[in-house]
C-alpha cells in the first residue's frame, strides 16, 4: 500500500523549488497529476517543474487550449483540463500520457478515467495566504522510489 506524503510550503518560490527538485528525477512517460481549487498553486507548481526540466519559455495556464508543449531536457506537456469537467470528451490524452515526455495535468480529477494507474498525484490545499499543503500520493513503485529519493 502506498503511503501519502505531506509537503508544506510557505511561499510560491518554495512550491516551485520543490517541483524543480522533483523534475530532476523524472523520466519520459512520467505523469504528474495535480488537484486542488482555483488558486491552490497548480500552475505555480507546473512552472517550477518546467524550470527543473530546463524549459526556458514562460509557462502559463493553457486557457484556450487544453494542452501546451514545451521543450526541455524532455518534452513537457502541460494540460489544464478544467474545461472538460462533466464532458466525456477524449482529446487523445494517450498521446501525451504514454508519450516521450513528461505530462503534468491540472484539474486531473476531471479526466480520472483517462489517467494511467502509475502516476504521482498531488493534491494542493490552501492553508492561508502563503501557506499550502501538498498531499503527495505516489501510485506505483517508480513514484514510490522518487518520493524516497526526495526524502519526503
Ligand atoms: P491554480 O493553478 O491552482 O489555480 P496558481 O498557481 O495559478 O493556482 O495560483 C496560486 C496563487 O497563490 C499564486 O498567485 C501564487 O503566487 C500564490 N501563492 C501563495 N503562496 C503560495 C504557495 N505556498 N505555493 C503556491 N502558490 C502560492
Ligand atoms: Mg492553474
TrEMBL record:
<keyword id="KW-0547">Nucleotide-binding</keyword>
<keyword id="KW-0460">Magnesium</keyword>
<dbReference type="InterPro" id="IPR027417">
    <property type="entry name" value="P-loop_NTPase"/>
</dbReference>
<dbReference type="GO" id="GO:0046872">
    <property type="term" value="F:metal ion binding"/>
</dbReference>
<dbReference type="InterPro" id="IPR003442">
    <property type="entry name" value="T6A_TsaE"/>
</dbReference>
<keyword id="KW-0819">tRNA processing</keyword>
<dbReference type="GO" id="GO:0005524">
    <property type="term" value="F:ATP binding"/>
</dbReference>
<keyword id="KW-0479">Metal-binding</keyword>
<comment type="similarity">
    <text>Belongs to the TsaE family.</text>
</comment>
<dbReference type="GO" id="GO:0005737">
    <property type="term" value="C:cytoplasm"/>
</dbReference>
<keyword id="KW-0963">Cytoplasm</keyword>
<dbReference type="Pfam" id="PF02367">
    <property type="entry name" value="TsaE"/>
</dbReference>
<dbReference type="GO" id="GO:0002949">
    <property type="term" value="P:tRNA threonylcarbamoyladenosine modification"/>
</dbReference>
<protein>
    <recommendedName>
        <fullName>tRNA threonylcarbamoyladenosine biosynthesis protein TsaE</fullName>
    </recommendedName>
</protein>
<keyword id="KW-0067">ATP-binding</keyword>
Amino acid at each position: 500500500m502506498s503511503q501519502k506524503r505531506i509537503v508544506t510550503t510557505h511561499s510560491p518560490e518554495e512550491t516551485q523549488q520543490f517541483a524543480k527538485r522533483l523534475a530532476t528525477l523524472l523520466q519520459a512517460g512520467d505523469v504528474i497529476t495535480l488537484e486542488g481549487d482555483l488558486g491552490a498553486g497548480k500552475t505555480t507548481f507546473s512552472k517550477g517543474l518546467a524550470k527543473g526540466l530546463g524549459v526556458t519559455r514562460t509557462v502559463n495556464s493553457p486557457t484556450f487550449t487544453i494542452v501546451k508543449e514545451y521543450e526541455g531536457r524532455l518534452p513537457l506537456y502541460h494540460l489544464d483540463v478544467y474545461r472538460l469537467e462533466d464532458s466525456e470528451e477524449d482529446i487523445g490524452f494517450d498521446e501525451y500520457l504514454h508519450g516521450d515526455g513528461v505530462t503534468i495535468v491540472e484539474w486531473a480529477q476531471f479526466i480520472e478515467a483517462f489517467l494511467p494507474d502509475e502516476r504521482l498525484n498531488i493534491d494542493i490545499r490552501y492553508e492561508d495566504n502563503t501557506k499550502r499543503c501538498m498531499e503527495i500520493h505516489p501510485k506505483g513503485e517508480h513514484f514510490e522510489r522518487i518520493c524516497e529519493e526526495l526524502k519526503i
